């Protein structure tokens, strides 16, 4: 196995027989190596007797040399991912600046433990299969939780909007009530003004008709004429 810094294709640590080193170097020197080994993509190159399994992720490319009958379902999600996780955990902040082969001896014990663990293919196949099922369930749970949080956020936003709408409606109701009262008093004033104008017009008309003039005096001042009786 070889662990390579993806940025500059520098082998940081390796473990195992040197008989495969030339093929590994050939793969690393290929013009389109980086484009083929994109992040998360799994590649498998077969020769007559062995397979070169490589995968990139988190800035690290790992090449694992296995027999042709070693199952992909074990080497990729199992051996390679476990090696990546342990390597990053062991050399966090160091592997980015390490020199070629500088971490081989420090990771040798972890390499040996991983290879011994993954030699039992049947047991690891069951474990990897169960782990895959657990990961699938975990991803589904994450998706469900994410959707639930989105729904909760949408509900919260709807509640906030409803509260804002209710506050605005109460404010509008108060403003409408004040406006209604103001219009009522204006209408009342207008009606009173019209009433007084009508009364004033009636008074003016009556005055012009002489209704309010004093009546003529017809008694007491005229001299009564008495006819004298004839003389005999």
List the helices and strands and how they pair.
Elements: E1 2-5, E2 10-14, H1 21-29, H2 33-36, E3 42-46, E4 50-57, E5 60-67, H3 72-90, H4 104-118, H5 121-208
Antiparallel strand pairs: 1-2, 1-5, 3-4, 4-5
Could you characterize the architecture of this molecule?
The protein is an alpha+beta fold and 232 residues long. It has 2 domains: 2-119, Beta-Lactamase (2-Layer Sandwich), CATH 3.30.450.50; 120-208. The protein has 5 helices and 5 strands; from the N terminus they run E-E-H-H-E-E-E-H-H-H. A 5-stranded antiparallel beta sheet has the order 2-1-5-4-3. Strand 3 (42-46) and strand 4 form a beta hairpin. It is rod-shaped. The termini are far apart. 15% of the residues are buried. The mean pLDDT is 82.
Q: What would you say about this model in short?
A:
With 232 residues, this protein is an alpha+beta fold.
**Strand order of the biggest β-sheet:** 2-1-5-4-3
Content of β-strand: 5-15%
Class computed from helices, strands and strand pairing: alpha+beta
Please report the distance between the alpha carbons of the first and last residues: 184 Å
Shape: rod-shaped
Enumerate how many helices there are, as a single number. Answer: 5
Unreliable spans are none
| Level-1 CATH class name of the largest domain | Alpha Beta
Average of pLDDT: 82
């Amino acid at each position: 196995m070889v662990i390579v810094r993806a940025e500059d294709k520098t082998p940081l640590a390796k473990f195992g027989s040197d008989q495969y080193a030339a093929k590994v170097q050939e793969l690393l020197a290929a013009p389109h190596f980086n484009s083929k080994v994109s992040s998360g993509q799994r590649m498998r190159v077969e020769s007559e007797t062995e397979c070169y399994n490589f995968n990139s992720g988190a800035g690290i490319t790992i090449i694992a040399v296995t027999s042709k009958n070693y199952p992909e379902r074990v080497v990729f999600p199992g051996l390679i991912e476990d090696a990546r996780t342990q390597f990053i955990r062991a050399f966090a902040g160091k592997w980015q600046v390490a020199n070629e082969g500088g971490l081989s001896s420090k990771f040798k014990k972890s390499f040996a433990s991983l290879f011994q663990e993954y030699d039992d293919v049947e047991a690891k196949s069951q474990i990897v299969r169960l782990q895959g099922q657990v990961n699938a369930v975990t991803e589904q749970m994450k998706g469900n939780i994410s959707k639930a949080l989105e729904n909760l956020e949408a509900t919260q936003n709807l509640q906030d909007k409803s509260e804002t709408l209710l506050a605005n409606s109460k404010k509008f109701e108060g403003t409408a009530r004040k406006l209604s009262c103001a219009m009522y008093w204006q209408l009342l004033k207008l009606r009173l003004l019209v009433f007084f104008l009508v009364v004033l017009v009636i008074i003016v008309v009556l005055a012009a008709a002489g209704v309010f003039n004093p009546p003529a005096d017809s008694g007491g001042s005229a001299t009564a004429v008495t006819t004298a009786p004839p003389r005999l």
